[in-house]
Write a structure and sequence with these properties.
This protein is α/β, with parallel strands linked by helices. It has a single domain, classed as Metal-dependent hydrolases (TIM Barrel). The protein has ten helices and eight strands. Strands 1-2-3-4-5-6-7-8 form an eight-stranded parallel sheet. Helix 4 links the parallel strand 4 and strand 5. Helix 2 packs parallel to helix 3, helix 3 packs parallel to helix 4 and helix 4 crosses helix 5. The structure holds zinc ion. InterPro entries: Metal_Hydrolase, TatD-like, UCP005295. GO terms for molecular function: hydrolase activity, acting on ester bonds. It holds the Pfam family TatD_DNase.
Length: about 260
């Protein structure tokens, strides 16, 4: 059984080099969810322009080489504009677009009062519009911050099945599974490696692979393919691989 219909469940189209889109298509990654991020944003307009660029220009560019892009919209903790509430107010309008499939990438890096306020507002938008929400987890203090975010999601009344906790690793996978959220599995050296994934497959089996490509750390636009190859080498059941490498994302985001 061949693995097909691969979907990268979390990437950043505005940072992917042209050759990166080519590499994705060559590896069979023909669909991807592009999450929003505007590093150091100061103005709401920066996000509005970003949403337009990734759901318009980059979507067309990627489609021309064989990658269908879908978009998640939201304010990333790496760039919270002073007038962030204006972005939140507009999110429902962006969600009406056919290729916009959820809220993301949102979350917290240090659980400051501002980060909490911005995340809560976006969780409320996700809940009110019944769409998936992709949550970033930080490099440090991970269990504490994930705990705060899960408590917040429960308080807001998020459907756990629509909550993606990304960059999952052994440290937080128990919290994610206990909540019933979907683990986002970012495959790269400094996150989840194919070896750790396969060695602990029962913990990560409800997850969705992604490459989370950006230009702020070493990574690979088609990085998730390494996990697919390793799972095949280790004789993981093809149905399990298919779910993790695209099937689950197709259902969650309605892009099958
Ligand atoms: Zn990301």
């Amino acid at each position: 059984m061949t693995i097909k219909n691969l979907i990268d469940s979390h990437t950043h189209a505005g940072m992917i080099p042209y050759d990166g889109f080519i590499a994705m298509a060559a590896n069979g990654i023909n669909k991807a969810v592009s999450c929003s991020i505007v590093i150091s944003a100061r103005y709401a307009e920066s996000y509005f322009d970003h949403f337009r660029a990734i759901s318009g220009f980059y979507r067309q560019l990627a489609a021309a080489v064989g990658v269908d892009l879908y978009t998640a919209v939201g304010v990333h903790p790496a760039g919270i504009p002073g007038d962030w509430a204006r972005v939140i107010d507009k999110l429902p309008e962006f969600l009406k677009e056919e290729t916009v499939v959820g809220i993301g990438e949102v979350g917290m890096n240090n659980a400051s009062p501002l980060e909490k306020e911005v995340l809560k507002a976006q969780l409320e938008v996700a809940r009110d519009n019944n769409v998936p929400v992709i949550i970033h987890t930080p490099k440090e203090n991970r269990q504490t911050i994930v705990g705060i975010m899960l408590d917040m999601a429960a308080g807001v009344g998020i459907n756990p099945g629509l909550l993606v906790i990304d960059h999952a690793h052994l440290d937080i996978i128990g919290q994610i599974n206990e909540f019933g959220a979907v683990p986002g599995l970012t495959i790269r050296k400094q996150n989840l490696t194919p070896g750790v994934l396969v060695d602990n497959l029962e913990l990560f089996i409800n997850g969705m692979l992604n490459s989370d490509y950006s230009n702020i750390m070493p990574n690979d636009p088609a990085g998730m393919i390494e996990a697919v190859k390793h799972m095949q080498q280790e004789n993981v059941d093809a149905n399990i691989i298919n779910e993790m490498a695209g099937g689950r994302a197709a259902k969650l985001y309605g892009i099958s």
